[in-house]
């Protein structure tokens, strides 16, 4: 009888362990599902906001989600100094008043303030001349569906760190057919528009899902002038 009782105790212990593991798996899946839902809701919110009439400031912050933002003291001091200089020179539009954007420009010029300000001013001039600040509302790429037939590309999922993955299927590209549908100028404008859309919709949504500020700022490439 003692052998049978031992087997029963072992089975009961295994069942409790199995129930606990299943419960943990359900909690993890529920947490992942909740984060994905928040990211999707945030992305949908940004997408719908551009479909409404008129122009308004988009606030992609979600108060219910806490995102860790770790800063280096020396970098933060350099950023604050740069920000004050840009304010004094009237080179700081509200939409670009962002800590990590300043830091990215400083790193691009090895924290040389003069070169950073020059790069910043060139970026603002380019955006103004190209109409980048309003390109989401002003430009419509009607030929997109046809273009994708001869140059398949676009975002597809995220990597292991939650960063959006962009894929271009170059082996299926047909430049000659592509140029019958659109022009280099319009195609370039479409890419600039998509960078702006990613900056305002996709990257913040992924940051919300992963609770990482560096995720958004690692991909924050659309503000700088191409090639700079």
From TrEMBL:
It is found in: Cell membrane; Golgi apparatus membrane. Gene3D superfamilies: CRAL-TRIO lipid binding domain (3.40.525.10), N-terminal domain of phosphatidylinositol transfer protein sec14p (1.10.8.20). The keyword Calcium does not apply. Residues 143-228 form the CRAL-TRIO domain. Pfam families: CRAL_TRIO (PF00650), CRAL_TRIO_N (PF03765). InterPro entries: CRAL-TRIO_dom (IPR001251), CRAL-TRIO_dom_sf (IPR036865), CRAL/TRIO_N_dom (IPR011074), CRAL/TRIO_N_dom_sf (IPR036273), PI/PC_transfer (IPR051026). GO terms for cellular component: Golgi membrane; plasma membrane. Keywords: Golgi apparatus, Protein transport, Transport. GO terms for biological process: protein transport. Residues 1-34 are annotated as: Disordered. Residues 7-28 have a biased composition (Basic and acidic residues). It is a peripheral membrane protein. Belongs to the SFH family. This is Phosphatidylinositol/phosphatidylcholine transfer protein SFH13. It comes from Abeliophyllum distichum.
